Amino acid sequence: MVTFDNVSKAYDGQVAVAPTSLAIEARRTTVLIGPSGCGKSTLLRMVLGLVRPDSGRILIGGEELTSDNALRQRRGIGYVIQDGGLFPHLTAGENVTLLARHLGRERTEVAGRCAELAELARLPQAALARYPQELSGGQRQRVGIMRALMLDPWLLLLDEPLGALDPITRLELQDELKAIFARLRKTVVLVTHDMNEAAHFGDRIVLLRGGGIVQHGTLRDLLERPAEPYVRDFIRAQRSVLPEVPV
Ligand SMILES: Nc1ncnc2c1ncn2[C@@H]1O[C@H](COP(=O)(O)OP(=O)(O)OP(=O)(O)O)[C@@H](O)[C@H]1O
Ligand SMILES: [Mg+2]
Description:
Helix content: 25-40%
Low-confidence stretches: none
Radius of gyration: 18 Å
Number of strands: 10
Bound molecules: adenosine-5'-triphosphate, magnesium ion
Largest sheet: 6 strands, mixed
Number of helices: 9
Distance between the termini: 35 Å
């Protein structure tokens, strides 16, 4: 379980995250959604210890995140970076296994785990020998997800994992990812700016604007009990993908 306790962050006097409190429930998928620049990636980066909040605390499994325990906590977290972030000079397989090999994990164990993940993510084994630029966008995302899962983290943070894909591939991967989350029963925080995707994945949806939480609830809560007019406006702006939404 992850808790944001009144965390805030500003860059050069500009608010990236306003004082925010949020509890991420264990073994559920929580979706952070909101317009570009509302602080979604910054919140994820705080959990990873990559961004230090100016105020407030991050609690991971009840323990306050500090510079002393950040590296240890980081080991329990899988992270899919916005825009992929695969190393271009490493093959897909090397990208997936880099950290495990760095940690001195046994070679056959690492290879076995990699093969198992390729099956889970439905990446053809032959693609593991290719470099990122020799893969399709969808395959690259599958590799990014495999890399995040390699060390069997309890927490998965995915920053717009499907953002750069064509609609068909995106739909297909949405279904597959959801099945993977259900099967692995991990705690997942997924960032998107697409309400349709949020509805697909999210047991809990957190709608953000300008660095603050506008509403936190189920899709039904947002639809039926909008906290403020902005919630309706945000959903209405995407009504073409949510035809069942009354507008
Ligand atoms: N390292 C940084 N230095 C300066 N400003 C930053 C930095 N990181 C983020 N910001 C600013 O903080 C705000 C929040 O950024 P963040 O990346 O969290 O937004 P986001 O919700 O992830 O947006 P997007 O949907 O475009 O990815 C933005 O105004 C951004 O410009
Ligand atoms: Mg972002």
